[in-house]
Structures are given as C-alpha cells and as structure tokens.
C-alpha cells in the first residue's frame, strides 16, 4: 500500500530529479559537466513550455520569443547599465509577462491551427525586430558578455555553480508544475484542453485560465533565457529566438510525456545528453545528428504519442511490485 | 512613381510563386485536414533535384520539369503512405508535430547530402530581362509567374470540373457525408497530398534558376505559405492564389519603403491583423 | 421562482430555433421538457446556460439577470447542465472529471475532491473513480455527465436526454438517481424521449414544437391533450414512439 502511494505521488521521479544534482560533481571533465548543465537548463525550459502547451494541448511554436526576451533583457541591462543579471532576470520576467499578456490576449481565443501559426508569427516578428534594432541589440552580430566572475554578475569560473543554478531552476519549475497538477488552475487547464465548451459549462473561465498559465509559462521560459545568456555568454537572435529552440522544447516534452509534470524532464535527461554526444561524435557529418533526432521524434509520435513516461512508470511499478504485493491495475 | 510601379509588379511576380507554393497547402488542409509544416521542404527537395539533374546531365530546370515533378509525386506518395496515413485519425497536435518532425528530417537529409552551401543553377536565361515600356523584368521571374498562375488556375479548374475534384471539394466540406456517398476517402486524401507536394515542387523548380538552394530554403517558404493560406481562408484554392499575390505585393512594398529587413515583419504583421480581425481570411465567409 | 425565462428567442440566420418561449420554475420543482426532434429543446438549454447568446428575451435566475452572462459565470451562479452527447474529459480519470466541476465553487483541492466524491456516490459511480473516462461504457458516461454537473453544486440542473441509449434496468436506476438529486434540493429541467420516465419524474411538463411552447401542464393534462399528441407523436409518420 505504501509502495503504491509512493508510486502515485511521483516519488521515484522526485528522487531522480533531486539526485541528479550529484551528476556534475562525479563527472570527470568539463565537457560532460557542460552537457549536464544543458540537460538541466533544457529540462527547466521544456517543463516551462509544458505548463501551458502540454496541459492545455495548444502548441506554442513560438516560445523561443520568451527565451529571447529573458536573454536580451538581462544582458542589455547588464552591458548598458551594469545591472546585475539577477535583477535583469526578474526584469526579463516582467517584460515577458507583459508580452505574453498582449500576445495571449490577442491569440489565445484562436482555435487550433490559427493559434499555432500566431505563436510562430509573434516569435518571428520579435526576431526580426531584434535583428533590425541594431542600435540597441547589435542586430545579427549578437552580444558578448565580458568575463568578470562574481556572484552578482552571475558569472563563475568553474562549471559547478552553473550546474547548481540550472538544477535549482529545473527543480523550481518542476515544483510549480507538480503544484499546478493539484490545483484548480491545473484541472481547469487540462479540462480546457480536452473540451473547452464542456469545461466552461462547469464554471471554468477559459480566458483567464489560459492567460494565467500562458503568462506563467512565458515568465519561467524567460528566466531560463537569462541563465542561457549568462552561461553561454554570447547571444544572437538566431541562437536564442530561432524556431529550432521552440521545436526543441516540444521535442523534449513529447519524448518524455506531454502534459505531465515530469515528462519534459525525463525527455531532457534522455535526449539532451544523447543529442549533445551525437553532435560531438558526428561532427564530421553535418545533419546526421538532426536527422536522428527527427527520426526519434517521428518514431515517438507514431508509436508512443504519450511519451516514455508511462513506460517508465510501468517499469517502476514492476520493480516495486516485486517488493510490494501485486496491486490492482489501473 | 515609375519605381513604385516597378516594385509593385515585381511584388505581383513573386506573389505568383507564393500562390503556387501555397495552393497545395490549402488543398491538403482542406481535404486531408492536415497542417503540413513540412510543406516547404518539398519545395527545397525539388530545387535540389533540379540542381542535381542540371549538374549530372546539363538539363535545365525547364527541360527536367516532367522528371522532377514525377519524382516529387513519388516522394509525396511515399510520405503519405509511410507517415501521414497512420495519423489521419490522431489528435491535431500530433499531426502537426509529426509534420514538424518530418521537416526536421528532410532538412537534415539535405544538409547531409548537399552541405549548407548555397547551390545555384546558372542557365543562360538567368540574367535575361524583358522590357515592357519603361519597366524591366527578369525573364525567369516572368516565366515562373506565368507557369505558376497557370498551374494554380488548372488546379482550380480540376477541382471544379472533374469528378475527383468534386470528390475533394465534397470531403473538404463534409468528410462523413462524402464517405457515405461512396467516395474512397483514403485514396482521395492520398491524391490531394500528392497534388499538393507536386505543386509546391513545381514552385521550387520554377525559382531554381533565380534562387539558390540550401537546406532551410523550404522553411521560410513553409511559414510564408501558411500566412498566404490563412489570408485566403485556409482551405480555399482561389483564396490562396489571391493571398499569394497580396503577400508578394506587401513584401515588395515593405522592402521598398521600409527596407529589406522589414519584408518579413510586414507580412507577419498583416497575418496577425487578419487573425485577430478577420479569422476567416481576407474574404472568408463567416 | 428560481428561474424565469421571458419570451426567449434564438435565431440562427433567419431561422428561429426557439421563439418567444417563456417558462417559470419554482425552487425544488422538476419540469419535463418534451417535443419532437428539432423542436428546440437543446437550444433552449444552450440559451439558459449561456452556451449560445440569445437573440431576444430575458432570463432571470435566482433574482439575477443572466441574459448576457457567459456560461462559466452562469455555472458559478448555480446552473449546471449535462449534454445529450456525453462530453467526458477522456484522458482524465472519473474522479478528476468530476473535480473540474468541484473546483467551481472552491479553490481548495481537498474540498473539490470531497465534493466530487459525493457526486460520484450520488450517481453510483464512485467505484469507478480511478478509471480513465474514455474507458467507461455509455451508461457510466451518462452518469459521469451528471456527476460533473452536480459537482458544481448547482441550484438548477438541466438534464439533456440522460437516459437515451440506456438499457431498461439502467433507465430505472437513472430515474432513482434523478429522484435523489431532486430530494437533495436541486431544481431540475429534464429533456427526455422516454415517456414513462419523464411522466413519472416531472411535476409539470412543457411541450415545445418548432421552437414554440405549445402547452404546459401536469403530466396527465399533457398526455391527454390532442394538440400535443399530434405534434409530438406525429399524425403522419408516427416518429418517436419510443
């Protein structure tokens, strides 16, 4: 009984999430630590994306816009006014919230395809604006953050602080996600994704529900944007605002399990290292790495559209089932 | 004034290509109900095929037109059979993601085969111009425009005048009823998909003498085609033709008055305005 | 009066699906809404609960004018409805389905859960609470439909053909369930084609035909009225004998 309760409460998944913090400490070199940081960061980002699109089943293919807002806001504040990226991160969150309110206010009522296309359009407009506002953003050249280590500058010499920071980011977003699943907002959101009219008839205020979740998702993505900028120390419109990033959020979420709190994390834990290692090993054959990821995505969509999380849970159930009494199936 | 007129007509010429690149998307969306994010990738494939044939045999894109289109039709048929047919009843988000994944696969395949370099086909006609009064036009662009509009109109007539065309329109309006009337839905879906990919392929080979091929060339056309189709009212073929022309003109005027960097922003802005104020397209019935 | 519908009209294009229908219900009452297919019964439900904006007329619920209110606001005020074609949230469990309604009047998880559990008990579906809704059979889905609506803790519940497609024993069970809902103090309007059931459940019956109210009375009055018999059972082709 206790074992089953543990399974239901995502206990094992929490253990995985929390214990993953050990990984950067035991890995021998900077290359693997770098991959770990990216894995944490992408897990957090994909989980943020999932907060709206995953639960509500409305795909945003423009979330790179918020990644970009986060990265550019903190970087510009830091470079021009010497404002600490910690504060810049919050400022980016505020701007992302405003952007999401405006964008969401105009597009969230759009149905299906129209919504998806509008998210792409907004992201592309923002990208073009960033490229053309050369005086402020340096356009396509991008911005370089000078290397001045220090806590207030959110810059460190080694990899470990970055790993801890991105890990904390991931844990916070996960925690919000898990809380969401047990809240009125979460229930309303999932119900909306299943059947909007039926949900409204049960008292769900669809406009407000979607807007709140959309803004939350945008703000958390934007925080990730600041972390990205501070870690890579160089941003350009095509590296942070490209549709490829938006697609990667989706890829990770769907591989793990869309609309579940831990799915995107599991997706990132598996695919980000694989993808980085592939990129490293297949550097001679450009395209092969992307081709493999594309094929993986197709395979997942065709054969496991719910992602691998349900499979994983079955595995846990099996492992624990050996110990506990065999439980009744769902 | 002359310059504006030149810009305007240049916009219309590009618009014809955009129309051809989009009618297939509108057809696939209308008949199959599929949002195909990989649509532009077929344009990219056709450009590379034209490039390959030109390199190996010296045949220019116009001479290799038939072979190229046949290959495109086969590729379209294979993707439909191998992937799309399996998800016809799936969730829309799954279908969309699948086409996104497909575009990823095709782009990276292109990257593997042809690298990221720009590949140009330089035929004699590439730099030819023709004069019309005080206006000057690039011959391949005029040719592309004429063939594109011709092919789009042919598609329209096909849908209006033939039995299969009527079947497609019937499915587009009411899939269930059409099935009851004895229309073989899956076959018609397949046909619509193949026609769609072949037409966007035609657009690709028509621009190949004037536009370089590179792995992500299709992606920009995909988004563009989506915007065109939304302007035209999603599943309407005449709407897509008109939408293509509108986008061509808007893009061209924005480039002239605001600068080339704003071309894309201009049509995205138009797109959002239409989405917000006229979600059924510029001349969509409600 | 808990609900006053004052000459409500709903037009689709030029066609009136509901025209100048008025009705009043007292607190705790059960009203049956009958009429041939296409008489405008479901449309009237859609108008009352705000799914469709009405063309003309006025609707007052519990002293509040709800004519222009949105469906989620109306749900919060205390009108719930079930759908003729069941609309479960297919990928959520039965309990989670009901909890969406349970969150209508509270933000606290535990409260929403206990409200939902109570509604599931009332419709006798609590033993299936952890099943994914798309795996329920039709009878269970119909029950879930009611449980979802009940979880919003309505004062007025609109039931749209909750018995259609059920086996005779399931119909009997459903009649009992509806009685117990009414006993708990919920006012009901019921659309139903199964005459026996509706006659036994309703204290008053309203008959619609071509969007117009053609009569209102006790079950006995209605069943003996010639006009109703002609309209409802149809003189020429005898449709809807069920």
Helix content of chain B: over 70%
- Tell how many strands the DSSP assignment of chain C holds: 10
Report mean pLDDT of chain B, rounded to a whole number. Answer: 86
| Rg value of chain C | 18 Å
What fraction of residues of chain C sit in β-strands? Answer: 15-25%
Query: What is the makeup of the main sheet of chain C?
Result: 6 strands, mixed
Description:
The complex is a heterotrimer of chains A (330), B (286) and C (242). With 330 residues, chain A is mainly α. Chain A has 17 helices and 2 strands. Chain A has helices spanning 2-8, 11-19, 23-26, 30-56, 64-81, 85-107, 112-132, 134-137, 160-181, 184-194, 196-201, 206-232, 237-240, 243-256, 263-281, 288-303, 309-323; strands spanning 143-144, 234-235. Chain A has a two-stranded antiparallel sheet with strand order 1-2. In chain A, helix 4 packs antiparallel against helix 12 and helix 5 (64-81) packs antiparallel against helix 6 (85-107). The two termini of chain A are 14 Å apart. Residues 325-330 of chain A have low confidence and may be disordered. Chain B contains 11 helices and 2 strands; from the N terminus they run ααααββααααααα. Chain B has helices spanning 2-32, 39-57, 65-82, 92-114, 139-161, 163-173, 175-180, 185-207, 217-231, 237-257, 262-277; strands at 129-132, 135-138. Chain B has a two-stranded antiparallel ribbon. Chain B is globular. Helices cover 37% and strands 24% of the residues of chain C. Chain C has helices at 41-48, 71-77, 94-102, 109-122, 138-151, 168-183, 195-201, 219-224, 226-233; strands at residues 3-12, 15-25, 30-34, 56-61, 64-65, 79-81, 156-160, 187-191, 204-209, 212-217. In chain C, strand 1 and strand 2 (15-25) form a beta hairpin. In chain C, helix 3 (94-102) packs across helix 4 and helix 4 (109-122) packs across helix 5.
Brief rundown of the structure:
The complex is a heterotrimer of chains A (330), B (286) and C (242). Chain A is built from 17 helices and two strands.
